[in-house]
Amino acid sequence: MPNLLQLQHIRKTFPGVVALDEVSFTIAAGEIHTLLGENGAGKSTLMNVLTGFYAPDQGNILLDDQPVRFASPRESLSQGIGMVYQHFMLVPAHSVLENILVALQNVPLLFPRRQLREKIAQTIADFGLELDLDSPVWKLSIGAQQWIELIKLLMRDCRLLILDEPTAVLTPQEAAKLFKVLAKLKQQGKSIIFISHKMREVMEISDRVTILKKGRSVTTLESGEFDQNRLAALMIGNDRIPEWQKSLPFSDELVLEIENLAVRNDRGLADLDNFSLQLKKGEILGIAGIAGNGQKALAEALTGLARVDSGKVLAAGADITRSCARSSYIAGIAHIPEDRKAIGIAPDLSLDENLILKSFRSARFRNGFFQSRRAIRQNAQEKIEQFAIKAGPSGSPVRLLSGGNIQKVIIARELSERPQVLVALYPTRGLDIGSAEYVHKVIAEGAGDGMSTILISEDLDELYKISDRIAVIFRGQLVGYVDPATASREQIGLMMSGEVPA
Amino acid sequence: MLEILLDATVRAGTPILFATLGAIINERAGIINLGIEGLMLIGALSGFAATFASGSLFLGVVAAFVAAFIAGSIHALICVQLRGNQIVSGLALTLFGVGITALFGRGLVGQTIEGFERHAVPLLAQLPLVGKAFFNQDWLIYFSFLLVIAIWFFLYHSRWGLNLRTVGENPTAADACGIPVNLYRFLAVACGSGFVGIGGAYLSLVYTPMWIENMTAGRGWIAVALVIFASWSSFRALGGAYLFGGVTAMQLRFQAMGTTVSVHILQMLPYIFTIVVLVISTLRLQKGASQQPGNLGLPYDREDRK
To answer: Inter-chain contact A74–B179, Cβ cutoff 8 Å?
Structure first.
């Protein structure tokens, strides 16, 4: 098949960081090409070069064998290269119609909504989707928002579509539907760059796989040349995957009980509605559900960040419903938040300072009235070693670390005070295999020591692997519990869309 | 009596209306402009100077727009191209406006011109109560009505308006859609500033047809507050500006009637009203009914690693 796009020796540096060093690979017309790599391997940077957000320092991009240079996203888009970003490029306050319109070409200057409404409605119907064109985007599920992104690109006649972890926000059934659409697009001759960490999917749909490691393209494998183990080995290279054992059966002692909890969000809608849950000592309880069904509200209600409207939270028999974040923590609940950079860390503070955010009042870190720099530094060194954090130069802001290392910093801080309960919200989202395994190891070891974990995740494979029980959440309510040893993916998938098991 | 009060309301509200509309255009693109007060003064002085020199009121209005457009471009250059701090740049623009108009306006203090005259709109001016107040006015007031409608139409029924709103809400998304973010932001800041300048010119060409140092007397700051009160909508800006105009007209009326209340207390009323308005609209913002552009106040850097 003819080459659509060739990347040759792409290099991109940021002040003090080489993000891409030597990346070369080709995309053929009509293929699904998967890009695999650990976090920090340079996938996002590379895609930003392709979409015109970043200008590469060196290297050539050839489109249809002609050299091209994308000075802006506008130029890249006009050449037919479009991307569904992991953080969607939508305006939440605008309607579905407006969000699509803004991406189209040849939009009439006056009354654009009226004139293009029919055409957009038709395209949406062609995909078998039901979307209210006038509804503001923030009211839609994240899955639906992703479809809008895809429709935008298809209406612009993009010939190269880039999808960055698209299945993270979909149920297994919705993901299957997406794959069907991708297969159809492939038949139409469109090329697709697919980014995912889920090996099952990579195996299912890829024609070719290119592996990125530390800013270099390691190799490209044809379909048939790779299997899950080979890919994982290539991705990680010589890095060691931590080993861990699942903990012993948990006890029946209840450490946390949630009774008929209701939480309303800023817009007055119910995030959690009559939600009940029981957590036992030493248990890893997985919460399965499509993103946006109340998981965040659950984590925030438990950690005291969200106001509870009604219902009760009991920790070891004590009512902690109305406590603030700090007293929740004292009651023994640790939190790994969803948005690492926004609420997990203080981005501009150093690693040392981030590690003591929860214990800065402790006498350990004080010298009378002053902070004890030495004790804080020593604590950081201990944690860096214990959690294998790849820290930058001492004193530099923690936001410069890669996603996996930021997550390790958060975990190190949260677990340092030996919590009884850990609430982990998508703890491995966006992490490479090595870091994700590390997170699992820490959670499993914690369980062995009697810590109970509420693990909220959208990755069913992860939940199957590590959970003792799985609870399914849908529209802020508990659908039911399943045993990962016996339940099928299809069964959980149905429960995730609200069907109560018979 | 009520007719006279309404008429005074419209006349007192119009300079603030222009300034609020200009600020709305700025903020819809995501740029906060605290230089409104300075821009109004620049508009007031250049409008008065041009009319004084040429004898043409029309040229005065054009000069006010152009001068404020140029002054606003400085703010745009700093905030859009150089990604500077919008608050600092805006405050500097106000200080700059106060200083430079005091300097160049010295020779014009005490001079007078013939201001805009009233032109009654046929039929509409005969409406009871509101007819005289709204339709027996000068050309600039009619232009402000048109501008309110034009901005609403532009924002909600044109492609450029949709692009502008997207730039203010999420510049990264706008960029990904191929919208030239910096161009939209620059033009929005410069043109918006131009309309603010016309607001200033209304003071020196109509309201009190002369140049007085610092004649805006804080009206620019009131406009900044009214933008929030108006939830970034041009129609609500009209309501807000006339509410303020009404309070001003009333306190003037009280003074004329010779009450025993101190003049200083009466003159405070419009500003107290502004504080009340800010408290109410902030409460409303906190309830989540926010219309605030999502990326208001944040610079946009395409290569910024978030």
So the answer is: yes
Summarised one tens digit per residue, pLDDT across range A275-306 is 999 998 889 999 998 877 888 888 888 887 78
In-domain check, residue A411: no
Q: Cβ B162–A110 below 8 Å, yes or no?
A: no
Tell me whether residue A377 is in a domain.
Answer: no
Check residue A363 and report its DSSP letter: G
A285 and A231 within one domain:
no
- For chain A, give percent helix, strand, coil, nearest 5: 35, 25, 40
3-class secondary structure, B25: helix
Same domain (yes/no): A164, A42: yes
A224 within a domain of the structure (yes/no): yes
How many distinct structural domains can be found in chain A?
A: 2
Fold of B2-287: ABC transporter involved in vitamin B12 uptake, BtuC (1.10.3470)
Q: Which of B157, B174, B303 sits opposite A110 (nearest CB)?
A: B157
A123 in the same domain as A42: yes
Looking at the partner chain, which of B169, B180, B303 has a beta carbon nearest the beta carbon of A54?
A: B303
Q: How confident is the model at residue A144 (pLDDT cuts 50, 70, 90)?
A: confident
Q: What is the CA radius of gyration of chain B?
A: 19
The residue-averaged pLDDT of A324-331 equals: 61
| Domain identity same for A228 and A264 | no
Last residue of a domain, one of A179, A201, A236: A236
Neighbours of B221 (CB within 10 A): 18
Chain B residues near residue A94 by CB distance under 8 angstroms = 165-166, 169
For residue A267, the chain B residues in CB contact (below 8 A) are: 288
- Residue in chain B closest to A87 (alpha carbons) equals B173
ipTM of the complex: 0.86
A239 pLDDT band, cuts 50/70/90, is: low
Whether A25 and A152 share a structural domain: yes
From chain B, pick out residues whose CB is under 8 angstroms from the CB of A107: 159
pLDDT tens digits for range B239-283? 999 999 999 999 888 888 888 888 888 888 888 988 888 888 888
- In a mutational test of the A interface, the residue from B159, B233, B287 whose CB has the highest number of chain A CBs within 10 Å is B159
- What pTM value is reported for the model? 0.82
Q: Going by DSSP bridges, is the β-strand pair A310-315/A254-264 parallel, antiparallel, or unpaired?
A: antiparallel
Structure tokens at B206: 């109509």
CA distances from A235 to A231, A399, A401, A480, B290 (A): 6, 24, 20, 37, 45
10 Å CB burial of residue B72 (0-12, 13-18, 19+) is buried
Q: Per-residue pLDDT tens for B155-206?
A: 999 999 999 999 999 999 999 999 999 999 999 999 999 999 999 999 999 9
The parent domain of residue A149 ranges over 3-236
Chain A residue numbers with beta carbons less than 8 Å from the beta carbon of B157 are 110-113
> Which of B160, B175, B177 is the mutation pick for testing A, counting most A CBs within 10 A?
B177
| Together in a domain, A58 and A123 | yes
Q: DSSP assignment, residue A397?
A: B
> Are A58 and A151 part of one and the same domain?
yes
Show Cβ contacts of residue B161 under 8 Å, excluding neighbours closer than 6 positions.
Answer: B153, B154, B155
CATH number where A275 lies:
3.40.50.300
Chain A residues within 8 A of B160 when measuring between CB atoms: 109
